[in-house]
Amino acid sequence: MIMSQKKITIVGVAVFAISVFLYYSFVFNSAVQGNKAPDFTIGLINESKYSLIQSEGNYVLLDFWASWCSPCLREIPTLIKISEKYKSSYFENRSQLDIVTVALEKRGENWKKVALKFKFNWDYQSVEYHNFILNSSLANLYGVLEIPSKFLIGPNGNIILSKTSYSEIEQYLDQRIIKNQ
Fold first, then answer.
1. In the predicted model, what is the mean pLDDT of the chain?
2. Could you state, in order of their start, the residue ranges of all structural domains in the chain?
3. What mean pLDDT do residues 163-170 have?
4. How many CB atoms lie within 10 A of CB 56?
5. N or C: which terminus of the chain carries fewer CB neighbours within 10 A?
């Protein structure tokens, strides 16, 4: 009987701790529309480093995805289309669009097969290995609890669109593109 009560107490404490963490992630997350985007530095697949500050003055499409995520895979053709559409485009103040993709993988190199199949052609590609999305410090920094998850960060470093869709990102950028460059 005492052992059962101990197990119930331990489970109750664990559920409470997880609930507090999730509440904190949702309520106190700084990665919301209008706030300054949390700065980060990540390792890229080409073994260099990328910091958000490198894209200061440009728009940043920050995309969290995984090779094992069916919705992510369905959306990749749209990401490719956006990359092609805006790769030579300029927006106000001669800003451009930087695409930063973060593959949240459990193991292996399936991300590489996906990147090759779809011909990812942007410079800022990163892969993090975790059993759970919540184990990624970058995903936590942006309040990412599920993937796919996308953010549009403005040239001033503020989050314009948070946990949004590619169509919303495209609509926003289309309104700001400089025609006849």
1. 88
2. 31-174
3. 95
4. 13
5. N
SS3 (DSSP) at 142 = coil
Query: Residue 2: its pLDDT value, please?
Result: 62
**Cα 158 off chain centre by:** 15
Task: Report d(CA 21, CA 149) in Å as an integer.
Answer: 19
Q: What is the mean pLDDT of residues 105-122?
A: 93
61 - beta bridge partners? 99, 152
Is this prediction's pTM over 0.85? no
Is residue 145 left, alpha or beta, with left meaning phi > 0 and alpha meaning psi from -120 to 50? alpha
pLDDT in tens, 49-62: 999 999 999 999 99
Structure tokens at 120: 């990812």
Alpha carbons 98 and 58: distance in angstroms, whole number? 7
| Residue 68 pLDDT greater than 80, yes or no | yes
Tell which residue, 153, 151, 103, 152, has the closest CA to residue 126: 103
Return the bridge partners of 43, or none: 49
Sheet with strand 159-162: strands edge to edge: 124-129, 97-105, 59-65, 149-153, 159-162
3-state helix, strand, coil in the chain (%, to 5): 40, 25, 35
Fold of 31-174: Glutaredoxin (3.40.30)
What pLDDT is stored for residue 27 in this prediction? 47
